[in-house]
Amino acid sequence: MRTFSLLKGKPVFDNGGELIGEVCDICIGEDGLVTDLLLLGKGLIGKKYRLPIQSVTSFGNDGVMIDSKNSLVKYYELHDEYTMHHNQPLAKKNTLSQQGDKLGLLDDVYFMEEVGTIVGYELTDGFFSDITEGKRVIRTSHPPKIGKDAMIVSVKNRRGGKAHDEMSKLPEQGPG
Fold first, then answer.
1. What CATH number does the domain containing 67 carry?
2. In what residue span(s) does the PRC-barrel domain sit (predicted)?
3. Is 110 domain-assigned?
4. Chain segment 24-46, per-residue pLDDT in tens
């Protein structure tokens, strides 16, 4: 399992050891799956490219490995796709439960890197609240409903932020 914040800025190399660029965002479909990594290409101009998640051969602690740069496609925006910071950004989006309870602002996502399935959402109430109460992690297997003003997630268990939260800890991120 991987979080976007730990993946952001990681260099991407092909199997010949050539630096292709670095991860600058993730693309998330309406179905709640991470479909592509968004790369900032090396060089002064730094063009953006899509890298399908299926083209990644390995997520390491110090870089992302791909077979070939042939799987890169120049970045283009899709109307039914979201990112964390670029097109239709989800970062800092209001997040509500299906019952209408405000859960916080989206800060990060946890996803299974092999298949792109998002399994958790890390939420914040702001810097001071994060320090005193901690961030909340909502774990769900259901895709969110993403609207113009808010994101609705299915909430059964939560961890952090509240004394009564009962969710077990998300699995630790292993090497690669």
1. 2.30.30.240
2. 4-71
3. yes
4. 999 999 888 999 999 998 876 77
